Amino acid sequence: MQISMNMTDSRWDEERFRDGKDLEAYVRKLGLDGIELLHCAGGDPSFFPSGLIQGVHIRYRNDWLDLWQGNWKGLEAEYGSLAQAEKVLGGLDRDSLRKPFEEDLALAQALDVPYVVFHVCDIKTLEFFTYHFQHSDEQVVDAAAELINSLLDGKGYQFEFLMENLWWPGLTLTRPEITERLLSQVHYPRKGLMLDTGHLMHTNWELRSQEEAVDYIRKQVEAHGPLASFIRGMHLNQSLTGGYVRRLLEKREEAAGDYPARLDACYRHVFQIDQHLPFTASRMRELVEQVAPAYLTFELITSDRQEHEQKIRQQWEALR
User: What are the residues whose beta carbons fall under 8 Å from the beta carbon of 17, sequence distance 6 or more?
Assistant: First the structure.
């Protein structure tokens, strides 16, 4: 099992280290095999020493389905105008949507990483606070399969393409029929799943403890039967934030303001839900052993180098 930590190539993350050698020494000191990299627009992947990047997390858009399907009214409702939509999305055609994905896939190929990660989800800023969704799981995974096939067919990539669960419309790993629907439509032979433990926890607002979360996640994995063999990677983290979501949905008030203001509110809101804390349940190791992923990422959110090291060590202690 390859064990990595998450990191972006943003200046905010890279400035925690003197240089790439300092980062590599930090990674080795923590007993990790490398980095799962989330490439950022304007980021500098050359900061990382050769071989340290073990996987690439492809950039993602929360709202992309309307553009993919040419739903101009939906784009106008979300962004205020087609001009604003074009500014945010980089264009109003499928090629503009595919471009950042293609860039990240090319980067992964150049780095010769064994796997990439791709979010399968669609949600608008108008939906973040209400959970009144325009699109169903079925609609999102059907369109995602079309998009994925357009990115991968005939390209000759060798990495594993791992599709990650979220808690909004799309792949949630709570409905095996949806998981099968997605996998059956993706042509790429080296397709698989990336199980994010925190994201799966967010589909159950009644969880009160990490131990309950272990039981819940194991139940969802077991419900997938033979499909569970497609789970090749795991993002290990936890957040017990169901109470926050329940209080939020008592109001179901949309975020106020124009698109930039709503987007800012949504980012702050998401971090209230998806806190990416170490998963330290006493039986967490049983879950990891059940899934037996080829790739395990300690995917944590921290404010500085020292905090990250502390939380990595917490995660190691729980795993051991």
Answer: 23, 26, 305
Q: Which residues contact 219 (CB under 8 A, 6 or more apart)?
A: none
Region of 170 (left: φ > 0; alpha: ψ -120 to 50; beta: rest) is left
Evaluate whether 4 touches 298 at the Cβ level (below 8 Å).
yes
Q: What are phi and psi of 289, to 5 degrees?
A: -70, -35
Q: What is the 3-state secondary structure (H, E, C) of 88-145?
A: HHCCCCHHHHHHHHHHHHHHHHHHCCCEEEEECECCCCCCCCCCCCCCCHHHHHHHHH
* Distance, CA of 115 to CA of 296 (rounded, Å): 11
Contact between 242 and 205 (Cβ < 8 Å):
yes
- Please write the tens of the pLDDT for every residue from 213-223: 999 999 999 99
∠ CA(292), CA(162), CA(215), 5° rounding? 45
Neighbours of 209 (CB within 10 A): 10
Q: For residues 275 and 302, what is the distance between their CA atoms, to the nearest angstrom? A: 9
Contact 284, 318 (CB under 8 A): yes
- Summarize pLDDT for 50-62 with one digit per residue, the tens: 999 999 999 999 9
For residue range 157-189, list pLDDT tens digits in order: 999 999 999 999 999 999 999 999 999 999 999
One-letter amino acid of 273: I
d(CA 203, CA 213): 11
pLDDT value at residue 305: 96
Residues in the chain, overall count: 320
Q: Which residues 6+ apart lie within 8 Å of 114 measured at CB?
A: 2, 54, 55, 159, 160, 294, 295
Q: For residue 130, give every residue at least 6 positions away whose Cβ sits within 8 Å of its Cβ, in sequence order, or none.
A: 249, 252, 253, 254
Q: How far apart (Å, rounded) are the C-alpha atoms in residues 296 and 209?
A: 22
d(CA 231, CA 224): 10
